[in-house]
Task: structure prediction
Amino acid sequence: MPNAKITGTGWYVPDNVVTNDDLSKVMDTNDQWIVERTGIKERRWVKDRKFVGAAALAEPAARMALEKAGKTPADIDLIVFSTMTPDYVLPASSCILQKKLGAVNAGAFDVVAACSGFIYGLSCAEKFVKSGMNKCVLMVGAELFSNRLDPSDRSTTVLFGDGAGAVVIEPTDEEGGILSTHVHADGGNYEILYVPAGGSYDPISKGEHERIYNEGLQFLQMKGQELFKIGVQRFSEAIMEALTHNGFKIEDIDVFIPHQANARIIEMVARRMKLRPDQSIVNIDKYGNTTAASIPIALCEALDKGMIKKGDLVVMAAFGSGLTWGSAAIRWI
Ligand code: ACO
Result:
């Protein structure tokens, strides 16, 4: 069985910077509250939101990852696209991306695991490659959430940003690469973070618009404090599972890349796990929570800054709607 290696990485965020001060002009919030509670200073939102979808954000990230891997779109034999903001109800955004790239030889499917989307998608890609089925998998996490946020809900709108990250995964005979991935879910708690209407359960169909819009059911509903506590717990479990599975200890981690949900969650997890401050990658101040894109964007930034070297142990962990959580352990080669 071959190992699976990340051979290319890419990312993209829209140019349009939205600062906390910008938001304070349109809703009852302020820079101090947002920075103290979340660590977010600014985020990127697509400016002209009409007829732009997650696949449009994914395309430049994917092209960058392919270039770094020395691959062309025709080399891709599978696209795994993690998003909770697909372009359409159907088809999958992976198919839209396939068309944009001209990746004519690729199978394509989407993964819906919200903020854990990158870990879930990576886990799928890893298995397809390690099984020998696929030789060049493009795995993308992309989110265009700004046009689904409730402008009257300051507690959710300030948190999220648009963006995309991509990795190319190929088989290798070298030791290392993706050592393990683990994914988990607790559907019993799905109502802690969900969008009640717009799916098949409560479709936004003729005659239902008024009720749904009046109650704001098309928007994200979040029980922030409950989520915070569960998040700290699940993040910690996810890290331990990745380490225990591979026989590692906390001090073996060279770089920890958490999903960027909240700087305070990351700090609490780091304190609990006794991680050194220099072990964790934190960039939520610049991009907010980009959900499925947050880990690959942070990975790209860490690589660009030379923070990840060959041979390093990189541990990733995420937590999000579902509720879902999971981890990945990667020996960088
Ligand atoms: N600006 C100013 N005040 C605000 C804002 C804001 N943007 N938002 C809320 N407030 C107010 C509230 O109304 C409340 O006021 P009150 O005391 O008068 O009622 C007060 O601030 C405190 O609100 P809390 O909700 O208790 O604030 P908290 O400290 O819990 O922070 C936050 C809220 C940042 C959302 C936090 O709970 C959190 O990060 N939770 C976890 C989110 C998360 O992990 N998401 C990851 C998954 S996302 C996904 O999967 C899609």
About this structure: The chain has eleven helices and 13 strands. The chain has a mean pLDDT of 96.
